Amino acid sequence: MRRTTSTLAIAGFTAGAIVLSACSGTSGQSTGSGGTDGAPVKGGTVQVLQATDFSYLDPSRGWDGGVNSFYRLIYRQLITKAPADAANPNEMVPDLAESLGTPSADGLTWTYKLKDGIKFDTGAPITAQDVKFGITRSWDPEIGIGAPYLKQLVDAPADYQGPYRSGDLPTIETPDERTIVFRLKAPFPEFDAVLSMPTGTPFPVGTGGGDSFIKDVIASGPYDVKSFTPGSKIELVRNPNWDAATDTARKAYPDAWNFVIGVDRATIDERLIAGQGSDVNAVAATVQTATIARIQTPQLKERTVKEPSTCTTYMGLNTTKGPLADVKVRQAINYAVDKSAVLNATGGNQFATVSTTILPSSVTGYSQYDLYPSKDNAGDVEKAKQLLAEAGHANGFPLVLDVRSNPVAQRQAESIQQSLQKIGIEVKLNVIDVATYYETIATPSVQNDAAITGWCPDWASSASTFLPPLFDGRKITDKGNQNLSQINDPAINAAIDANIAETDLDKATKAWGELDKQVMELAPIVPLNVENRIYLPGSNVTGFHAPGGDVDYAILGLKDAGKA
């Protein structure tokens, strides 16, 4: 689960308890043909320009969008997300496994069979024992700081601390070299998605302790690390022991990849616009807001790709605070907020799309509705005043809004401040340093009336890592609390349980969409917008896709392998 706050600033944020749901559904569609015209050819070197280093090269440690895209080049798991150009890029597909998992009748046991011909970069075969070893590394208290789901789901002893400290884990069984069996604490219909997380990466038994992986990354994907200079450069070359016949998710067109790290973001935009030398083969993260006006020329617009993200920016309303405990007050605020003004504060419709739902359209389970409509999304002041009067607050009241010390976030907050002033709610902005913002708003004892924040799911094939952490009242904690509204509604809690228990994933998908609307009837948040990610791939790049905002490097390539 990932917290985010508008305009391209994402922070990893783990929740305290596992949450779940469905697979299959729709995905947001990209606009613009940039980077997608023409079929990629085999060969050449793609250059990736980035301002910051990856969090970790160890898949048991890393857990954010940028590094997950990188991992797809060098690591494989039993299950993975479908290629980004698939009809449903949110779908889970077999990777090292022959098929999706086979659950037992009671849902407590999941069995997988490995494909033939899968190898590490050393040439050694990848066995079930290697998969188990790699997975159990995530229980190590120092190494296992990445995705927590396997630790939360697998029925491991409470004192188990991974293979280096505790040895074997009996609840993951390997009856032979190609079979692996997981025993769970409770049924979890989306266990395939859990195994697609980086923590599902195999390691040869006995390897990967401490920081040894930095000197010799053990690759299972189509590329291996040739050189790594932290904070400066990563060079990838082909893994000669990767067999394309065993891998339907990765095309691996380029011969090599150069990740150039530590480049100022403004400089990256300038280089992509100029498109000179090797930069014709370059890709990067989203362009900055200030660059948007400069890429409106016909030539640059042809290269531009706009993708809706899987993240919703919203204002959480603390239902334990004074007038906000009244649903009519919260509904009034939903009516009053001028979302078009917030959109402009975010950067305009190039950078975001107004949201009336909790789930973005790029997350499976999304269902379109608008419970608090207004003309041009500019707010319905009269309806809001009516509801406030019915709640006994015709003259309004004071409200403290927590906001990050970030220019975009503060512009959004000022826009909301102006909207609510029209209905008599006087908003005071409490600006919090970016470094401590998430920790602060996730501590109920210091959280104020409202906060502008956002949420991204860990896998978009379901709303299971979206709605439960935000609205399950039983998961409210003193620290690291994700339910910022602190809503604890028995009907919502029961619906979450029912959706989790639903083994028919199509039914679960529909149920999550219905729960989205059920939650918004109580108005614990104000959905504001869904970010768009704007990319400007080099002119020689093709096959560029980033559904949900994460670039799929595994299917990207060049139009001319000999260029630059």
Could you please describe the fold and organization of this structure?
With 564 residues, the chain is α+β, with helices and mostly antiparallel strands. The chain folds into two domains: 210 residues, 3-Layer(aba) Sandwich (D-Maltodextrin-Binding Protein, domain 2); 224 residues, Dipeptide-binding Protein, Domain 3 (Dipeptide-binding Protein, domain 3). The chain is 24% helix and 19% strand. The protein is built from 16 helices and 21 strands. A hairpin with a 3-residue loop joins strand 10 and strand 11. The protein is globular, with a radius of gyration of 24 Å.
Number of strands: 21
CATH class of the largest domain: Alpha Beta
The CATH H-level superfamily of the largest domain is Dipeptide-binding Protein, Domain 3
What low-confidence regions span 5 or more consecutive residues with pLDDT below 50? 5-29
Radius of gyration: 24 Å
The averaged pLDDT comes out at 91
What's the CATH architecture of the largest domain? Roll
Distance between the termini: 39 Å
Find the CATH topology of the largest domain. Dipeptide-binding Protein, domain 3
Helix fraction? 10-25%
Oligomer: single chain
The fraction of residues assigned to DSSP E strands is 15-25%
**Which structural class matches the secondary elements?**
alpha+beta
InterPro entries: Peptide/Ni-bd, SBP_5, SBP_5_dom
GO cellular component, one term: ATP-binding cassette (ABC) transporter complex
GO biological process, one term: peptide transport
Protein name: 4-phytase
